[in-house]
Amino acid sequence: MATVRPFKAIRPAKDKAARVTALPYDVMNRTEAAEMAKGNPDSFLHISRSEIDLPETEDVYCEAVYRKAKANIKKNLDSGVFVEESRPSLYIYRQEMDGRSQTGIVGCVSIDEYRDNTIKKHELTRIEKEEDRIRHFDVCGMDTEPVFLTYRDDKKIRKIVEEYTVKNEPEYDFTGEDGTAHVLYVIEDECVVEQLCDLFASVPSMYIADGHHRSASACAVGEKRRREHPGYTGDEEFNFFMAVIFPDTDLRIFDYNRVVSDLAGMTAEEFLSRIREKGFEVKKNGEKAEKPEKPHQFAMYLEGSWYRLIAPDSLIPDDVIGSLDVSVLQDNILGPLLGIEDPRTDKRIDFVGGIRGLGELKRRAESDMKVAFAVYPVTVEQLMEIADQGRIMPPKSTWFEPKLGSGLFMHRI
What we know:
single chain, alpha+beta, six-stranded antiparallel beta sheet
């Protein structure tokens, strides 16, 4: 059963929250991070991407980068940009974007439950990305960004959250530069905190929606602390890491689309012919851009025209992973026709989050790429089914929006 534990958050002073909050560290490169933080010394990017405060020649993974992040945390604590809670608490965090909201609980979860798969995964991690956040968390002495978890909706938990937000005023309520509203409640009633912890103890599993590298890195740092403190009791903060936990019914997964740099030596006509030979129905839409309306439909942009591709039933396996549209596309077009055998490593393919729209796919296909594909998005239920089976989703399968606000809370370990 799932453990959720209150903690003493380090978070922005109320009047600083909007200036501090940034996008997560891994959705931009160094240049973009520097531009986003320009003119704002309070931006959390000075911590999550602290290389922006060092000379451009500095290795982004060198020790100086992690020491700079630690120094920036201390500076912000000393100046009052950040405050540290006097007692452990849970938090209610609501995000609103494009008329849709998602409301979750901010607390700490157990590294042991990550290891025993009570907290379930669906992605592989890359060792270099893990090592970066391991060193970042270790040197800073805290989890600086939460993991994004989900669970199957629980009516009792939802009722408590809804009643608390109706009866109490939020600590923060602001809209970020990207148009996402961030609303945070500090749960000061210890009885409510205890009720929520007890209810989560009856939740069979939680699932990582976003943040596999942060989870793995936080656990690695916790285990390092255990080795350094062989007399640990299991109650120390390093045995837990920070998460925002949303009910599955609040979440929406966007499509995660593909662009490819060439047609593997084929002309456009030859490529279209090969797709038809595979059994796909191919309809030319010209300049009319239409997102896939249901599973096993694809939108393709090639040489100035949009096409709708429909996969026949014969190409859809009776398997939750194989039937995902990212798998159908990979197994029937990207792999056998375009030679993209491993999309994790092949330099000819790139990925575009569906939040950017079909216009971005067209732009890429007309600039640095040759062909673009839009897929029907994975559902949260499919994600949980795959995780329940202990299996791994294809790379770049899910794109969650809105992204968590980075800098709203940190957890000292």
